[in-house]
Each structure stands twice: as C-alpha cells, then as structure tokens.
Amino acid sequence: MTGNSTPLAGSVRIRILRASDVEAMCAAYLRNREHLAPWEPLRAEEFFTVDGQMMSVQSKLSLFIAGSDVPWVLTDGEAIVGLMTLSGIVRGPFLSAHLGYWVDKDYNGRGIGSAAVAFAVGAARDDLGLHRLQAATLQHNAASQKILKRAGFAEIGVAPAYLNIAGGWQDHILFQRILY
C-alpha cells in the first residue's frame, strides 16, 4: 500500500496519511469542528491545534507501521476534506478490521463517502487480504447507514452503550461486510 494519491470522486483524491499533513489536518478539524461534534468523542482543545494534530498523526502513523491501522486522507488539492481509517486489523483466522470515516461538511452529498467506502472495501480485500470489515453508526446517523448499505454492508445488530460519543455512551448499529 503506497502513499500515492488515487482519484476518488470529482476532484477528491485518497492517499495514506503523511507526517507532513499535520497543518492540513488541523485546518480540516477546525473547519469541521461543529459538523463532527455530534459523531465523535469529546475533544480537548489541544486536539484542534497543530501540536495536537502532530500527536494524532504520529499515533496514526505508528499504528500504520505496526500493521494494525491504515489511515487515509481525502484531499482536494492541498486541503484535507476527510479521513478514513481501517483500525484494529486482526490477522490469523479472523482477518478483520473496523472501518471509520468522515467527510468535510462542504463535501457532503457528492458521493465522496460512498466512493471512499468502496475504495476501503477494495483495499481491505485486495491489498490486505481481509475477510471481513465491520462498521458502527449512531442509531440516528441515516446518512452513514445509507452509505454502508450501498457498499454491501449488512446490519448485524445493535450494541448498547458501544462508544462514548459527544460526551455520553451511545448505542450503535453494527454493520459488517464479508469480503470473500
């Protein structure tokens, strides 16, 4: 899996996160702070600074080097307009990972999320040899549920108090996609 940029949808491209993306990640999170707040954990103020993003990017790249995560950024020119991650990659008989993603508020409704998820499915199957992907959405996140279903994910149940999102433990709908 290289760091080369691949066309995704319109002018948006996808590539592996780089150490040099710190300032662009900071700008993306600042621009999308309110948009992402209902869907993400509470963030300390430091998260929205260059230093905070430097720690986040370094952590993501360490996990990538270790083989447990694959962090991609969605870009439009020099701007980062989304993030997608395969996390918790497990080898052996499980061959599975979790999929998470977000798309910039100004890029919603353009098919970018769908294209990114389709890209991740292909990379998980063809490049990583994974058997299964799992994703979870808040119960009221109809947009992400639609994207996952369009990409062939099946709903497999509800996980009570699954993740601490927006300051509280929230139920999530679990989805999976068997890749082969």
UniProtKB/TrEMBL annotation:
Record's keyword terms, sorted: Acyltransferase, Transferase
Organism in which the protein naturally occurs: Arthrobacter ginsengisoli
Keyword Chaperone: no
Pfam family, one: Acetyltransf_3
E.C. code: 2.3.1.267
Stretches assigned to the N-acetyltransferase domain: 12-180
Molecular function per GO: protein-N-terminal-alanine acetyltransferase activity
Membership in a protein family: Belongs to the acetyltransferase family. RimJ subfamily.
Enzyme class: transferase
Protein name according to UniProt: Ribosomal-protein-alanine N-acetyltransferase
Lineage, highest ranks first: Bacteria, Bacillati, Actinomycetota, Actinomycetes, Micrococcales
